Amino acid sequence: TRSRRSHWLKSLPIAASVALTVVLSVVFSSNSQAYGWAALIEAMGKQGVVQIDTDNEIRWLSLSDGVVGSRTSTSSQLLDIRQRVILDRDTGTTVIHRRTFSGNTGSVPSQNRLVLGFLLNNIFDEENSQRLAGVRVVNESWEEITSDGNDQIALQVTFETDSLEQIELEITLDPETQLPFSCELIDGDGGAKSLVLSYPSTTVSELKTQNFPAGLSIVEVNENGEPLIQVVTNEPPTPEVKVAINDHTANDTITPSQPPMFGAASDWKAVLPVTLPGDEIVKQTNVLLEKLWEKNKISPTGPASDEELLRRVYLDLVGRTPSVNEVRSYSGEKSANRYETLVDRLLKSPDHASHLATVWRTFLIPEGVDLTAFGGVQAFDQWLAERFASDDSYDEVTRSLLLAEGRLSRSGPLLFYSAVKLDPEQLASRTARVFLGMRLECAQCHDHPFEPWSQEDFWSFAAFFAQISRPQGTLENVSTLMRVRDVDHGEVMLPDTETVVMPKLLDGSGIPDDVQTTARRQQMAHWLTSVENPYFARATANRVWGQLFGKGIVDPIDDFGVQHEPKSPDLLDLLAGHFINTDFSLRELFRTVVLSRAYRLSSGAETNDEDRLDWFAQMNTKALTAEQVYDCITVATLLNTDSPNSPNSFNVTRVGNASRDAFIQQFRTPSGRMTEYQGGIPQALTLMNGGLIQGATGLSSSGLLKSLEAPFFTNKQRIEILYFATLSRQPQVSEWKLLDGYINDDASGAELQEGLADILWALLNSAEFTLNH
What we know:
By secondary structure, the protein is an alpha+beta fold. 36% of the residues lie in helices and 16% in strands. The chain contains 27 helices and 24 strands. Strands 1-10-11-12-13-14-4-5-6-7-8-9-15-16 form a 14-stranded mixed beta sheet, with helices on both faces. The protein has a two-stranded antiparallel ribbon with strand order 2-3. A hairpin with a 6-residue loop joins strand 12 and strand 13 (180-186).
């Protein structure tokens, strides 16, 4: 007998992906266990390699790696979704043919199309696979069955393509893992084709090595399989390669072209959305990093202590150290997910929004520009903070900035234009660095010496900013009365020529039809923030990673290119794909990174190993910015803060704080790498004798020292509070020995107060206080 229970689910097509593959799946929820195509896809993505054996072929699929492979007695094929290439090799030969996979209208397969193509065995035939374009679930049902004494799930799924062709599958699932055992493809005539699926322990790397060994020559071919003149090898490039190809003989020397590289920005493809849950993205991030460490034979440091991690995440997310109450509150929390809860709270706090506004403003506004005439940076910071506090979609924030209009006296986002004097060249270079992660200005006067960008590329991008209302000629100064608005005239020319350069997108694509009639700035902003832009999401993910780790996956963070390849293209695309899928939520991007294992590693180690730092196997020590130093001092000493005694409402006054602005001007250091301390004598003197420190440690002005006058504190507790306030930890054993000789248990009155003030001064001037570790 066979017991059954049927459940019909309303189909709901949603754009999704697994491990950098576009996914079109069905998402549903229920209080009871439910089974469907989306759950099956997710289970296959987590499993690893899925294999199908037939009489004359073995084919396999790894959703997590975005790879499909096939092997017969005569040939092997492999489709790499991330690289968008198909490899083909005849058995027994030493040449691999490689061609670009264009997919449907230039895109890569959706996950439905990828899996169905794998099952139908037409994934390598692009023309035949087009019948699956736009494939989506239109109906599905499942029932519990018992077969040979084992509980199983029978899942029926109906798909429909753009051409209205319907495809039916009957799948048998494991009810616990939701992985399929077998599958029947039902054709239009009622016939069926049965397939058996298995899950070998073989890895993708092993399968690639078996079928496409390193050291073989790679011949680039076109879509018809005809060889191109460029030839590369599957080894590190050599000055020249000798290969018999077309009319050339083995003695002919062919200088190989540069093979497509992730770092060559002109070759990038659009990022694929990744629709895994946030916690799964964190797991995938950890897996990718662990693979990097294993590949590079690196042993990561141990996890950071609770106190170390607490201080770090406060500095990174809200720009300040935790208050004494916040330290104690976290230490007293015993729940297993207390760190995750803390991260979520910090990301929703006003301090996160205002800190992020300060950080982003330093990217957007050139250093050293005097903006006093335009009201300073306060209105700009306030505008950014309000957008970040609302968790506005980052693509929308970017468009609002780039398309801002009005008189420059209004400041706010218009400060971006005021700071560069409405100059098209500066607007283009600043926009490219901040939002695209590339130093395009290096091609302003001549073709880029190291990257594929030409001088014309730079000026064609600058042309998007040429039609903004501005006086003719070069502007030495701009007036607050000037207005930013789009006009229908204004061009840029190549330097020292009369050649007018028309606007052109950096990926070489044309202006979409629906925006061709709009102003140039709108055309540019539409493309720059679209999911089709191959740079925007990657550059933002890399910038967030760099802010948190002190160095980017691509480093420097704003210099993507051949010279600076990413440490892990897969990791960068995973984060960028998740960023897109969350509607460009910076908050979710920060959350993902700070929950990763790498972020939670210690910055300390018994031995020095630069490789650990380079590969994110040890946390970098970062110098605090001038803004962070001020904010940390105010929090530690209870200056200029709201609700200092509430662990959940501690907010720093940042906008409109004259004392803070004065300190920042005095303490600011030259720009440089976050992992290198740029301060010198002026900064040291400011901390030792400046007005802020005098007020923070003065017996009559320090809020912290005044609070320690309470009679119910012991001297040991008073010293602990000083350490909690400044370094977010208790004194170490060696420090207790030193402090016991300085302040004993019987000390009181003026002697005690002066001793506590001295300890506070020493802690505020310590290297540990001014570093984020």
